[in-house]
Specification:
There is one protein chain. Strand 4 and strand 5 form a beta hairpin. The protein has a seven-stranded antiparallel β-sheet, with no helix packed on it. About 5% of the residues have low confidence. The protein has one helix and seven strands; from the N terminus they run αβββββββ. The chain is mainly β and about 180 residues long. The chain has one domain.
């Protein structure tokens, strides 16, 4: 139904479009091989799906206080998940090796043509050891890297005017305490 007082076409939505619905699934798996002392590996994960709505402008301050002003409601269908594989190994001499990673993905499909997709990859290796001969000294070192790829259907988010963005952040670390 069009309202001649509004400068845009008014949409008609059902209550099922407006309602929030979501679901989530988590899991954790760990394996310790019997034939390799000190070795542990596993994977953790989470997946979520959601249908939601958002409005920044309300109809008025009395009769339409909980109703979106026409044309301002954003309906979002989204999903996200992550997988966290890992390996930990303690050597017989007490050196601890740890390899952790994450794969994280999201997709948000918005009704206002501002949808986003994201992929993030994370990897960390660390080794540590207690040096008891030097008075309870703890030494740790390693590296970490993080890489993200984002596609956003907004009007050119990066400097080149494209909707695709990429970020990479490698680092190494060392600590003695």
């Amino acid at each position: 139904m069009a309202d001649p007082a509004l400068p845009f076409e008014q949409d008609s939505l059902s209550n099922s479009d407006i309602g929030d619905r979501s679901g989530r699934f988590n899991f954790n798996l760990r394996y310790r091989p019997r034939n390799v002392d000190g070795l542990s590996m596993g994977i953790n994960g989470n997946a979520m799906i959601e249908h939601s709505n958002f409005s920044l402008v309300w109809g008025d301050d009395s009769a339409k206080i909980y109703r979106a002003f026409p044309g301002t409601l954003t309906i979002t269908d989204s999903w996200q998940f992550y997988l966290d594989p890992y390996i930990t190994y303690f050597t017989p001499s007490g050196l601890r090796h740890s390899l952790k990673s994450r794969i994280y993905m999201t997709n948000s499909d918005n009704s206002n043509s501002q949808s986003t997709k994201n992929e993030t990859y994370y990897l960390e290796y660390a080794a540590s050891k207690e040096l008891t001969r030097i008075g309870q000294t703890h030494v740790s070192f390693g590296f970490v890297t993080n890489q993200s790829f984002v596609h956003a259907d907004c009007d050119g988010l990066n400097r080149s005017g494209k909707s695709d963005n990429r970020m990479q952040n490698p680092a190494s670390f060392a600590q003695v305490r």
